[in-house]
Amino acid sequence: MGRTIWVLAVALGATLSACRTVPPVPPSAADAPPDANGTWRATSTDADKERIRGWYSSWQAALTDARAKGFGADIDREGVLLQPMAALPNPHLPAGDYRCRTIKVGAQGRSGLSYVAYGWFRCRVAPEQGLSSLTKISGSQRPVGLIFPDNLKRQIFLGTLELGDEKMAVNYGSDRMRDMAGLVERIGDNRWRLVLPAPAYESLLDVIELVPAS
After folding, report:
1. How many domains does the chain have?
2. How high is the pLDDT of residue 109?
3. How far apart are the first and last CA of the chain?
């Protein structure tokens, strides 16, 4: 696709070639202690730290709302994908092309749908100087950002939301309505999910399933 990724991270600072613009981290990360450089905690906004801390509460609220509005069978049909404690060891998401689909659970406000399952789109994971980038490369709502290590069962995604026919993502930390933070977890052989608690729009929880394209 020939566009350029500008990756600005405290411990990285490199210009790389790829198909999307990975959002730079906020300037405040430069004030982090040296031993915290390059970690998701040094990089994330305060609001996104709170999202990560409250992931389980967000998940429970989303499931409760969706079940109360008649979507219990849909939730059960997805099995481990929508089970909050289903993460397995070794969450590393290998580089490559993926099929990905989004499920939105729970509704913000009274008028929204409490469960929406979308079809399959295209996602890509690529190495980024010791980290990885994750980009949804088709569809009208496209998360794009970086994956940071965290613990034995999860990695942390920090990025922004690219919309419509936009060709470049906004900088991470510059627009709280576009910022995204979530958990990358492995839930089976060659099966992962990106869990996005408390998204800015529509739902109480977004879950993106990822499986290798080949």
Report:
1. 1
2. 80
3. 20
